[in-house]
Amino acid sequence: MRNKGEKSSYSYRAPTDKERKEIEAIREKYLDTNAGSAMTKIKKLDKMVRRLAFYPSLIVGLLGFSSFGLGMAFSLKWKLLHIGIPLTIVGIVLLLLSLPIHIFLERALKKRYGPEILSLSNKALQEGEKEKE
Fold it and tell me: Residues near 60 by Cβ (< 8 Å), separated by ≥ 6?
């Protein structure tokens, strides 16, 4: 408790520019993504298209690489050719398919999400031109 004659003191410290930028960056992570700008939606859709094409082809490539390596080990190290040769062939086929899978998925996803991305980008460009005027 304070005595009647004592004054209370209060100190205020405003965040520095660096702290303010960090606070704003953290704050943006928690804002509603549906209420974001057209640019944010464009980036999100583009990222989704790239990821949905990349990860399946990556998985097929890794399975192919593992199968190829295991087949080679069976063939060369353990002399089990009846297991090693088919595994190696399956690995080679999977490795050769990973790039066409990526290209196919990327084209299909661009075809699916392309119109939405283009309309959002046109909207963003028009908003940018209005702000310049």
Answer: 94, 97, 98, 101
